[in-house]
Amino acid sequence: EEAQLEARFDARIDDGGFIEAKDWMPAHYRKTLVRQISQHAHSEIVGMLPEGNWITRAPTLKRKAILMAKVQDEGGHGLYLYAAAETLGTSRDQLLDALHTGKAKYSSIFNYPTLTWADIGVIGWLVDGAAIMNQVPICRCSYAPYARAMVRICREESFHQRQGYDSLLVMMQNGTDAQKAMVQDAVNRWWWPSIMMFGPPDDQSPNSAQSMRWGIKRISNDDLRQKFIDATVPQAEVLGVTLPDPDLQWNAERGHHDHGPIDWAEFWRVVGGDGPCNRERLGARVKAWDDGAWVREAALAHARKQTQPLKA
Ligand code: ACO
């Protein structure tokens, strides 16, 4: 009977169909989704930290309001994604425990520091730009609860990308020389980590082949990276910044930009826990969890009271 269920599942996937939470699915499909969705959720939550660093120092009321809204959106994205992962039968406590004990991964990009205000604009432009490129295809992921969560997330990400680009345009067009230099410096620091976000090259990506077959991933790591680079080069020109890659150039034959070698040793070091801010990020998450213990306890005590009959 298991073989029959699996054949039906495969046929539905081959047909471009969607799988719902209560449908039968192979154990490995479930495990892959819990892995990817929970890593994605953790990335949203940890991703609040580098930007949260600048909320109190935003240069104007308008920029502060935008930044607070964006950071709150990221908290919301984390919650939709934890909820999507929970539909696969893993509890939120289990997922968070894996994050807090350092067993679960989250995106490498959030282990880099936000040194100046220009970093906030560049995160919107490059980091959220890369996130959208990666996430739009997930709106068609074969696991429907994940796909549905991604639709709303992508709409919000696109606002995040545009607010970042807009704040950089203001600095580049109306700013002082020092402000323009600050933008260029931020671009220089974030460019390479941003293109690493798409993950290892296809031939070194252990999960890609199976995830592509199952329609969890629709476009490969390298193809998404290429699409991102091609989209970003003209945006950099409009902005008036250079990208820190001397080998970056249009290849008319391929119809794409060629780029220089990516430092994969740095990528694996950061993924492995040894990036510039890994300890700080994880420490901040664990502290937030511990500091919030009394809120969870109070909420549980309140919930218990609601279910107990009132004493006369
Ligand atoms: N940062 C940290 N770890 C990474 C990264 C990265 N940028 N890229 C790949 N990895 C990890 C993978 O999680 C995998 O580890 P695991 O097997 O222990 O889980 C390993 O490196 C090998 O990579 P792949 O085989 O290519 O893994 P996968 O097929 O899962 O592809 C990808 C990685 C593209 C990130 C995919 O999981 C994905 O699309 N996830 C959803 C999007 C997401 O998480 N975005 C987070 C950043 S965007 C944001 O939050 C604003």
Provide key terms for this protein:
312 residues; 13 helices; binds acetyl coenzyme *A; mainly alpha
Please provide a written account of the structure.
The protein has 312 residues and is mainly α. It is built from 13 helices and two strands; from the N terminus they run H-H-H-H-H-H-H-H-H-H-E-E-H-H-H. The chain has helices at 2-14, 27-46, 48-52, 61-86, 92-100, 117-135, 144-174, 177-196, 208-213, 221-239, 264-274, 278-291, 293-307; strands at residues 249-251, 256-258. The radius of gyration is 21 Å and the shape is globular. The structure holds acetyl coenzyme *A. Acetyl coenzyme *A is lined by residues 35-36, 39-40, 43-44, 47, 105, 107-108, 131, 134, 196-200, 205-208, 211, 217, 221, 271. Acetyl coenzyme *A (ACO) is lined by residues 35-36, 39-40, 43-44, 47, 105, 107-108, 131, 134, 196-200, 205-208, 211, 217, 221, 271.
